[in-house]
Amino acid sequence: MTTKLMGTGVQRVEDQRFLRGLGRYADDVAVDPSTLHAAVLRSPHAHARIVDIDVADVLDVEGVHAVWTYDDLTGPMAEPLPLLIPHPMLTHGRTQYALAKDEVNYVGEAIAFVVADDRYVAEDAVGKIKVSYELLPPVVGIDAARAADRLVHDDVPGNVGARMEQNTGDVQAAMAAAPHRLTLDLTVERSACMPMEGRGTVARWDPDIDRLQVWSSTQTSTGVRAVVAVKLGLDLRQVDVITPDVGGGFGVKINHPWPEELLVPLAARTLGRTVKFTEDRREHFISTAHERGQVQYIEVGFDDDGRLLALDVKFWHDHGAYTPYGLIVPIITSTQLLGPYKPEVYRVVFESLYTNTVMVTPYRGAGRPQGCFAMERTMDAIAAELGKDRTEVRAVNFIQPDEFPFEQGLVFQDGRELTYDSGDYPASLEKIKALIGWDEFPAFRAEMAAEGRQVGIGLACYVEGTGVGPYEGAHVHVETSGKVKVATGLTTQGQGHATVFAQLVADELGCRFEDVEVVTGDTRRMPYAVGTFASRAAVMSGSAIHLAAKRAKEKALKIAAEALEASPDDLQIVDGVVSVKGSPGSSIDLGTVAVLSNPLRYAFDEASKAATQFTVGDPGKPPVAEDEEPGLEGTDFYSPERSTFASGMHAVIVETDPLTAEIRILKYAVVHDCGKLINPMIVEGQIHGGVAQGVGGALYERMVYDESGQLLNASFMDFLMPYVTEVPDGIDIDHLETPSPLNPLGIKGAGEAGVIPSAAVFASAIEDAESIPITAMPISPSELFHLRLTHAEETP
Amino acid sequence: MKPAPFAYVRPGSLADALSALAGDPGAKVLAGGQSLVPLLSMRLAAPSTLVDINGLPGLDAVTVTADGVRVGALARHADVLAHDEAARVQPLLRLALSHVAHATIRNRGTTVGSIVHADAAAEMPVVLTLLGGSVEVAGPSGTRTIPATDLYVGPLETCLAQDEIATTAFFPALAPGARVAFAEIARRHGDYALVGAAALVDGDSVRVGYVSVGDVPTVVDLTGVPLNEMAATALAQLDPADDIHATAAYRAQLVRVLTERVVTEARTDD
């Protein structure tokens, strides 16, 4: 194949398996009847002291093998779960125990762990555990957390886990000098990832080799491996973690270890049996993680053109009961809030607050949707104040194409300077205006109004730091069959990695695409890795795979050059065959090169004879040269200086029903810049999925807690994810490709982009349709109806 | 989310089914299972015996006569929805059924099951009540017919005894010259309605049945009420409530919108 696969919409090699139901998920591992199954007793109270746990009745249940409570845990297992990302400003970080010690802080917190013959029996047994509680007053919602009349943790004053400030200058002076000023009070509610597959862990202890094998539905197999080893007191070499097919993650599975991710291996080792935990949907609602909940206060000063002179943002971030993932979400909100703009002076202060609710860890977008909402609501408010077109106000604030690399003067989530590497925001704006029909909209609005219909148009811009470090690695191995085995350590949750990574290998190595097999998330194949999050897989592992393939290619050319008695520079590799350019008769296939790469003493088949000691090599030299290794392999790592910045703009036209306040999407458009595209079809799939999830976050989904801390809608009947009938009928997409200078392929991440501007773009459009300020998202028809009533009362 | 232990029987005759029910006061009937199975899985219901009636002969028929449509206890929503004769004799069946959940649920769920599950947020109990239909019930002492108006006694509660099985629902035919209409507003396609309304207009008579605005399916007689006063008249007899998806005030607004919409539609010549 001479045409490059990079940039072409190659069909996903995964889909045959997935569409035929042949995917193999954690619950599909160890299906034989000897596997034991776990169930967890979870707190029914949001805040309580545990007075006593009585498990006496449990062990009488036939089929129950063991039950654990906190008192049964020893050594590192009895310590709190790790605080994964410490930060100096996280002055009061707290994490839970694998099983609650003395106190529970949210409904759903794990208290006891039962292992039985099957999940039915395990659940029966859980029902027989008697816990007496002393109820404590719960803290629910950001207002209650700020009021701090009650505390989640006695030793965390004011419920404040962290307070953090960053500024780029004297915001008060700049504000005072600004000709115009505005303030905004904004709210974003909680939602959650909701992958189709919940959490799942299977573990098997092999006493014959003193080794633990763990399968987990995780976004980081190396992270799980490290923590399981530490917590169980095993050497790292005794633990393998394999990530099977994962039915979606969206962020929630990057947090680790979940209590069950440790308890299942502990049980497997203790009982000498294979043990499985498969989370059910209710558990996913109440015992994993949520995100998004923030209250924001913004003060902005600007000039007559709408140029940002001073931007002063305060926000309060609800991080739930514990902080295992540190301050990543609010740090991202506070830094990525700036989007494609360059305010003269920016100050941001946030407080990250404890509440007696499910903890908060990143959910696709990871704090950016909230930041985008703050910034874009501000832009719309400035435009309204000045009577200007919303696109004009944005345009005057854009960082210009010739200003890259652009330093925002802030520190990003990776502890490095927030420096944008590339982009072209004015070009994106032109594209999105054309795509949605921005300039033609007034005529369309008039046409609709004549029919008694009410429509609005909205726009939102964002920038996304993607491909965050520290590194990823790859191993490319050409087998003697000519098949190419590729391993990278980060995990796959349905993104199509096996396809795009194979494209990169085929392009660089010159093998056939069909001959490439990609393995991800298996610590036996690549023990050094970080994980899949922050839109980093293509950038990090993609780059590492490209570099590893390059190494394998260089080695192949060297060996082939010797065999063909040609200079490596005169060789080419096409469709897995190395040949001398211009003389097609002189060639050798990659499989044979692989044979030659490994000098043999023993032949085992016809092909291997070619590599034995009386056949090849210069008898005057060592069979393996001093700086060489046997085997046709390449290993390399990619570790960038900093994140690369993707960007995009979304626009939407909505119709709001004057009577029922229903909100209908008439048109949705996306302009997207993730640098060089590896597979446009897969990028567009990411955008479609992101937009669908964004529609959910903007118009349907919320976590409804009552004042006692009970989650009222912990099922798919009441937590409203959009169906195909609720997402836009079609999404118009246009790409811009500004290559990243930070990696060899010029790529940027694309995984989260689709969801980032959703709340902002729908708020913009609904506000435009209704002429009522929209300050809180999500918004339901019932809420819009009440907004209309309130607005009508306020403006007689 | 696994059910608590229960005994399971799958009788081959109605008599056996009735005796299985009579033999265990904690027994429950399983037909389509679209409401019961989730309740079992969440352990919100824990019957000691499930009497699976899917093996009973002759209960899956949809029978259409000049006087109406008889729907057997094992006829699925999808069977009724697809039945052209049923739609001709009583058009409200198809109008309403197209709003019942999703195709996959309609393929399993039974219309009679929905009717006796007695959820005031479901469409078919209201349709039965509005049309003046009835259910035939078999019990230890024989069969009886319960008019829809007597069937519903409270939230998720009918007057059926534990040892009775609803075998047939009867939906009367639409009278010549009468018209029907159905509309509902739901958060998502196929969800339970925030509010639904079904109208039956026959000459001067105007009656509207409402979904999701009270504990039981409610039908309001609006005969003689001017169109612009109908909603107010209806609301005086309805009890819309707040829940996590909508406020009572918003539901009242939907009652206003939908009342006018269905009555106007039912009054309009095709």
UniProtKB/TrEMBL annotation, chain A:
Keywords: Molybdenum, Oxidoreductase. One of its GO terms (molecular function) is iron ion binding. It comes from the Bacteria. The keyword Translocase does not apply. Residues 20-137 form the Aldehyde oxidase/xanthine dehydrogenase a/b hammerhead domain. This is Carbon-monoxide dehydrogenase large subunit.
Automatic annotation (TrEMBL), chain B:
Gene3D superfamilies: 3.30.465.10, CO dehydrogenase flavoprotein, C-terminal domain, Uridine Diphospho-n-acetylenolpyruvylglucosamine Reductase, domain 2. Residues 1-176 form the FAD-binding PCMH-type domain. The keyword Hydrolase does not apply. Pfam families: CO_deh_flav_C, FAD_binding_5. Keywords: FAD, Flavoprotein, Oxidoreductase. InterPro entries: CO_DH_flav_C (IPR005107), CO_DH_flav_C_dom_sf (IPR036683), Diverse_Substr_Oxidored (IPR051312), FAD-bd_PCMH (IPR016166), FAD-bd_PCMH-like_sf (IPR036318), FAD-bd_PCMH_sub1 (IPR016167), FAD-bd_PCMH_sub2 (IPR016169), Mopterin_DH_FAD-bd (IPR002346). It comes from the Bacteria. This is Carbon-monoxide dehydrogenase medium subunit. It comes from Nocardioides szechwanensis.
